[in-house]
Batch of 2 targets.
Target 1
Amino acid sequence: MSAGSTRPGRYIPGKEIMDSVMFEIRHLTHAYETEDGQAYRALDDVSCRIRKGEFTAVIGTNGSGKSTLARHLNALLLPTEGDVLVEGMSVNDPENIWPIRQKVGMVFQNPDNQLVAAVVEEEVAFGPENIGVPREEILRRVETALEKVGMTQYRHHSPAMLSGGQKQRIAIAGVLAMKPDCIILDEPTAMLDPVGRREVMDTVHELNRKEGISVVLITHFMEEAVTADRVLVIHRGHLVMDGTPREVFSQPEKLKTIGLDVPVPADLAHLLHKKGLAVRADCMTDEELGDALCPFVSKI
Ligand SMILES: Nc1ncnc2c1ncn2[C@@H]1O[C@H](COP(=O)(O)OP(=O)(O)OP(=O)(O)O)[C@@H](O)[C@H]1O
Ligand SMILES: [Mg+2]
């Protein structure tokens, strides 16, 4: 449901467009106060729109402002200048803070820092309990959330005994129990092994695909960013690139100047193309690169 919903029949110019917008970021600037009392602009005049149901990846080097941006999306941080509208609700209006936090859940990097309960199902129930959801409804939400992240069989376990990937799935279930429209994940796989990373990415993609939950994924892993609908590149507090993964990763020189990695298939395809080989320059995955190289291999 949109916060901007109005009585049926009343025409509001641009309303249809705004109804499909999850986040409207308008000239967002955030300045932290440094130890010597100076203002440091971690975000500087960032504007963009993120649509409902979109899977957006945010990439950038260390300290570029990714987490600062993420924390504005559920009003954990407030703008120094500018505004963020979440489903039409401004983060600058104090009355919107709680509705926004319920609409937009957040999952952080370290699973151990965000799990508080002794038993998995208590952990998942924690959020709804805090906002006074009735007991019967909490039980239903816990069951559904655990099912959606594929962790039902662990409901009576201690979170401490789970793997990193499983802990992150419980953290995601905790967010799901709040019935969010969007999940923001700030490097959720950074501390996980490849199996845990896959578990979390599969879970998040399934929630996006099947439940229509909008996802904003901050990541240092380019192969994760490749799986998004859209990639935002932040550099020194500015939004410097915004496009589909193919659009962004087919510009390896630009990304490297910023200090970012490029997915290996994209880098190699671009290099071969530049050397004059008739290979499409915008391969994103190993499969695509394999297909692009096939005609050459068969000639050998
Ligand atoms: N509480 C704070 N006080 C002062 N400066 C801060 C604070 N939090 C972040 N910063 C600074 O703001 C800049 C952006 O930080 P932010 O955490 O958003 O970057 P990031 O892109 O998430 O980096 P990383 O990839 O390391 O997580 C950095 O230079 C950081 O040192
Ligand atoms: Mg960060």
Note: Residues 241 and 248 are 7 Å apart (CA to CA).
Target 2
Amino acid sequence: MKTLYRRVLQPVLFKCNPETMHDLFVVIGEFAGKYAPLRALVSALYEYRGKDISKTVDGITYRTPVLLSAGFDNNGRLTRILRHMSFGGEEIGSVTARPCEGNLPPRLTRLIRNKSLIVYKGLRNDGVDALIGRLRRTPRTPSYVLGISIARTNTKEVNATVEAGIEDYAEAFRKLNESGMGDYYTVNISCPNSFGGETFADPKLFPRLMAELAKSEWLKPVYIKMPINAPWEDFAKLLDTADKHGVEGVIIGNLNKNYADLDHPEDAPKEFRGGLSGKPCFKLSNELIRRTRLAYGKRFTIIGVGGILTPEDAMEKFRAGADLVQMITGMIMGHPGLMKEICEKYAEVYGGRS
Ligand SMILES: Cc1cc2nc3c(=O)[nH]c(=O)nc-3n(C[C@H](O)[C@H](O)[C@H](O)COP(=O)(O)O)c2cc1C
């Protein structure tokens, strides 16, 4: 099945526009999630059924420690199918207070021999109200965790001032808390593709955002999606602020802005056209996971993400100190059975309870 997919289907899919392919996958995945026979078919092909590898983190039990990272299921349409592809949960979003068209195309570019995507989506999503409505109407999949990531609406008005940006985050956060939807919330401060840049990844401005968010009652664990190009001094300052505000964990991390980290930088445009996912994120994120674990011990839950392309890559993230892992690009550049293979490897390495 894997060979057939990689030799026959994937080369055809890679000839099509990447954003169209992504949209098509979401339509098919949402459709398949609605019907039990289709869910059973996907499950028969791709669902992990080995030893118990469930893990409880911040009071939330994950059936498998492998999650879909933010940005693939922006609008929460795939919540009924992904469990059957061995994901223990997903991070929906990033969602914003207002609906947002995102940037002008091309919003997604494949760099195949670099095992990377250039992501220029610019937080394209239907907005938090639509997401809450959709999640209310959709039956919950048992043993499948839903995190929800929030970001600042990517429009010129909202990005005009720091105050407007803070109020925008706070509105989305408040609405989610009030709705009770989702199992954990992530504050994404590190999207490299929006008008205003990563305002709140600035250690001087991040405390202002957190002080405002602290005014809402937090009923779920809160995580911060961290930048991976920040120098350690700045990164540690962000962690100190997160610590001060009782944030449970950090997701390390977001896209890589440095095109020189590609194996073949000549494949990328000269001008910055979005952050890089996949392989160019792997070492940077592992290093930051390691340093965070070393410097802060068990203070933070760490979700490791960036460049997991093989089961061994996922093990490297766990060895570096991650409690859970997230991924997107490996599934696209690899094959849809990769998550199951990661779970099997995890059971082999970490035992699992049979
Ligand atoms: C198409 C796409 C869209 C993304 N959008 C978001 C987003 O909205 N919010 C976010 O926090 N990260 C976003 N990311 C970053 C991913 O969540 C992840 O941090 C990054 O891709 C590295 O993981 P990977 O190498 O497994 O893809 C996006 C990534 C991709 C590929």
Note: The two ends are 27 Å apart (CA to CA).
